[in-house]
Amino acid sequence: MVYAEPETTRWVNRVATPLRAFAAAESSGAAALVGAVVVALVWCTASPGGYESFWSTRLSIALGDHHLGETLRVWVNSGLMTIFFLVVGLEARREFDLGDLRERRRFVLPCAAGLAGMAVPVAVYLLMFHGEGRDAWGMVMSTDTALALGLLSVVGRGLPDRLRVFLVTVFVVDDVVALVVVTLAYTDDVALRPLLVALVALGLVLVVRRVTSRTVLVPVLLLGVAWVGLLEGGVDPIVLGLVVGLATSAYAPSRDDLEQASSLFLGFREQPTAELALAANAGVLRSLSSNALLQSRLQPWTGYVVVPLFALANAGLSVDLDFLREAYSQGLVWAIVVAYVVGKPIGVVGASWLVERLTGGSVRPAVGWTGVIGSGTLAGIGFTVSFIVADKALAGTQLAEAKLGVLTAALVTTAVSVVVFARTKHMNEVRRARALLGEATPLVDLYCEINPDRDHIRGSATAMVTLLEYGDLECPYCGRAERVVRELLEDTDLRYVWRHLPLGDVHPHAQLAAEASEAAGAQGRFWEMHDRLLDHQDRLEPPHLMEHARALGLDLVRFKEDLVEHRHAARVARDVSSADVSGVAGTPTFFINGRRHHGSFNLETLSAAIADARARALLQT
Length: 621
Description:
Elements: H1 10-15, H2 18-46, H3 48-55, E1 58-63, E2 66-71, H4 72-97, H5 108-128, H6 145-155, H7 161-185, H8 192-211, H9 217-232, H10 238-247, H11 255-270, H12 274-287, H13 290-314, H14 321-327, H15 331-358, H16 369-378, H17 384-393, H18 396-422, H19 429-437, E3 456-459, E4 465-471, H20 476-488, E5 494-500, H21 510-521, H22 526-535, H23 542-551, H24 556-564, H25 569-581, E6 589-592, E7 595-596, H26 603-619
Parallel strand pairs: 4-5
Antiparallel strand pairs: 1-2, 3-5, 4-6, 6-7
Helix pairs in contact: 2-3, 2-6, 2-13, 4-7, 4-10, 4-13, 5-7, 5-15, 8-9, 11-12, 15-16, 15-18, 16-18, 16-19, 17-18, 19-26, 21-22, 21-24
């Protein structure tokens, strides 16, 4: 049987894990952002008046006697950026519901690091700068999540995914607090009536979503009313995006939901009517959380449109030698640079160290200390909130100097981060693992431990890494993954475990094929039958199973009786039950040393994950 190049697992295709899906596009999203900054600088340098005139153009919307008019820059900063912070909130909520932060104790340290990473730069800024514009201290609070994670995806190739999770957690704390500060400290002339309308609209959204999850138009309209209410009330409505994102729960689809969705699709397959098509589509969407759906739809727009447009609207500077000479002689620029380049790492690293010491080591960073230091340096990249605050608190020459300070800090921080992570490439395997992964015990996602007396195991019994797969012998993706697994098993320090998860709603022969492999196992030939069935997934009907048994030299009478009487159905059901309690709904799903593997199952991705697991195992020996 000829297989296509391995691709993403069926689980990922159906669930589309947002945290990892976004990571794949971060480097190109960061490139789009940097490109927009360059265009803004060139545009403003070539035509300062034209640049400002364009972004100061008013765009108005009228509905009856009600009129809403704002400049293009405001529509971008307060409108489109609401979508960006919605995605930030969604990703944070996903980590709380499905990621490591579902163990709430693990949130303590990154929360402290995020808060200190804001407080220390503000203190540095206030100590260094005493002139007019000192009240713009909010510029140095926040890290630009999109740009920092994009940079990590470039300079941190080959680094463990756990580092990105730690960064996301720190940055989300940063974003939440920064938006609260912007709302409270940089809001003037608050109007209570529009704010009351916004709160009522938000309350109605909760009521509508609780009553029914099928309607989308009504909540969207109500959120639009809330956004206008906040804007008219004098509160920057970008906070609305973060609130909605944090309130949108994430969950993995259950097998019951997926089976119902496939049943609806099969009904449409038999009677392809518009009504059944709509029902099938609704069934598929119901199986996924709103969190996953929103992230999947919005992430490309935020990465490639929203954030670059924000950069284009705000990063414009008329750059010439006279301006640079004058600006770099001012204390404002250097207060911003030092606050970001020095203050951010001190805050993040210092708070992490202090929490570990105060808790006696019971609460540790989820990454090693090099990872913590690298997180601190990357946190020195400010952009979105920095420009929002600068635009509110400064004007004229000082606004231009502030923008230059933020951009300069980002360049210096990038260089420092490259050096920090480059150091690990020259370390041996154990030192590098300790520097990047640390000694915090990871959460285990596999609830049913591996039992050599019960499970089917290949490879060394003393291997440091165990790769477990829940698979379906009729699933084409499992067939593709099998070739990758065989290559991985050339590693003598790898143990491989197979557990059954036949998806009878989409693969009608999977259950009997699983029982056939167990029947062969009863005669000491499980792996031979396993391999043969995956190699001949188009030949799984009862006569074909008998042919496979004959080719393997099995006792055909015993084999047939086992199938007819379903003697091994309970053994297969036990694997299925273990999949259910571990939250597995699709195939193939892999676990590496008890940790669920999210992402592609190609050779490169799985090899990297296995290498990370081996490095962590080395630290525990």
